[in-house]
Amino acid sequence: MKDNAYPPEMINVSINMEKTGANIKSLIKASGYSVEEIMGFTGVSSPQAVYKWTSGKSIPSPENSLILSRLLGIRIEDLWVLDGDFDIEWPTVKRKTTTNEASSLQHVFY
Q1: What CATH number belongs to 17-78?
Q2: Measured between alpha carbons, how far is 108 from 42 in angstroms, rounded to an integer?
Q3: What is the pLDDT along the chain (110 residues), one digit of tens a residue?
Q4: Which of 30, 31, 50, 82 gives a 20 to 30 Å CA spacing to 93?
């Protein structure tokens, strides 16, 4: 991907639901947590929600994915299994820093 390419190339990401469900199921089983404990930590009101995650019928919300990743001791991106190769060259983001931001950063770092 080139810097400043216009229009920018779309980055396609596809979560493999079946493999993600199997991954979540395996991680929960290895952790020793029960479905009821996962329900309590995430605030979901029925075991069907957790079973849907572990069967690949749905994925946890971003908030619940973060909770699960912390409980299971993994990075949040290791919870999901992606289709295809996601190893791409990321574009460089260029953003101007305002004078106020620059002075506050100097205060923090100097």
Answers
A1: 1.10.260.40
A2: 35
A3: 455 666 667 777 889 999 999 999 999 999 999 999 999 999 999 999 999 999 999 999 999 999 999 999 999 989 999 887 666 666 666 666 565 655 555 555 44
A4: 82
What is the number of other CB atoms lying within 10 angstroms of the CB of residue 82?
13
Supply 15's token pair. 């979560």
The full set of domain ranges for the chain reads 17-78
**Dihedral of alpha carbons 13, 15, 16, 22, sign:** positive
CA distances, 44 to each of 25, 48, 64, 99 (Å) = 16, 9, 9, 45
Global pTM reads 0.71
Q: Which residues contact 22 (CB under 8 A, 6 or more apart)?
A: 54, 56, 81
